[in-house]
Amino acid sequence: MSEDKKKQIAVFRFSVIHEFVGSTTLEFGEQQRLLAQKCARKWAIPFSARTRISRAAILSWVKRYKQSGGRLESLYPKEREDKTKTRAIDEMTAENLIALKKSMPKATVPMLIRAMRERGLVSAGTQLKTTTVYRFLHDRHLMEVAPGSEDRRKFEAELPNDLWQSDVMHGPMVAAEPRNKKSYLIAFIDDHSRLVPYARFYLSEKLEAFLDAFEKAMLRRGLPRKLYVDNGSAYRSHHLEHVCASLGIALVHARPYKPQGKGKIERFYRRVREQFLAALSLPLTLDALNQKLEDWLRNEYHSKPHGGIGTTPADRFAAHMQCIRSAPDNLSDHFRCVARRKVAKDRAVILNGHLFEAPVCLIGQRVDLLYHPDRPNKVEARHAHKSYGYLHPVDLAVNCRVKRDKNHQTQIDTENGHGHKSGGVF
User: Fold this and answer.
1) pLDDT tens per residue across span 263-279
2) For the structural domain made of 164-323, what CATH number should be given?
3) Could you give the CA distance from residue 188 to residue 82 in angstroms, rounded to a whole number?
4) pTM tops 0.70
């Protein structure tokens, strides 16, 4: 399994166990209730047809994460020990079972097993057990689920930064050359205090704009424990998932076509439209629009009582400042992209059209390259969870004058600065 797939699985597992390993201590009864809920719900498990997670699996992930000191790598999947062993249901029996279930959609698992045996659809040496058949059919979404009424309740996070909600609002046209451009408001709201950690109009709603706003929000107000977003393509990116997991933030997605959970950010956007934008003379430049938004948040929104909490957002957020997790000094490093590359025999590594030189010890190894897209020459190399520092961009003019002695030590030929035979990267 590739490193990228392992990371995606580890990020998913962290999203399942984050309540048990966070800074908030749960009572025993609350832990058991939460564990039962997680075992009962359906999950979109990466690279798996299964939709359920067992109690034992969740507890093992919690144990591994805590024993590792909170390292995301501890949640990487382990290699199967039974790769060469025959599975409980062979391929022919599985195909027959699926076809029979589709022809008898109302049949129970015992009825299906009996029918399989009576019709001779079970391969020799295969034993169909009730639990095995049920799990097999359930993983392929062939078991009917009884419909039920949905339980919806109002909720509020207990403390500041327990939960942030975020979304994108289509904003007004802004003055630009050669013609006006559409703006998008990206904002975050603290569920407990209704304070807005950061809000800004951008000319794009893509992932790059969202990550910029997210980083600035945490620099201002600290790290949230959960981030609640919708199912847009930007919010489903593996990059965002890895950023959140590396910072110990649970990324939670709203269910499709269920916007009720994002009520607080939606109400904030309604106030922006009715109170802020309605009072402006548009169009403005993007910088002017954002400056006015900053002033409105400081002088109007944060400093006046909020109807939902009975006090000002600023006062309620400040009342529990001791609970705020400050952003780490290397916050920007958590937002770097990761690319997988193999180091060539000449120590060269190519990333986005730029040539870099890796340490000799990494020749022939696959390494992770961490970088910011807007800083193409600052690339860190990691291998086996160890950093090998920042790579040096290759200078072809210098490399053509490199000589090596019999001990493979390098020196620069200063007498003949232009003489070389191969003209390549050594």
Assistant:
1) 899 999 999 999 999 99
2) 3.30.420.10
3) 46
4) no
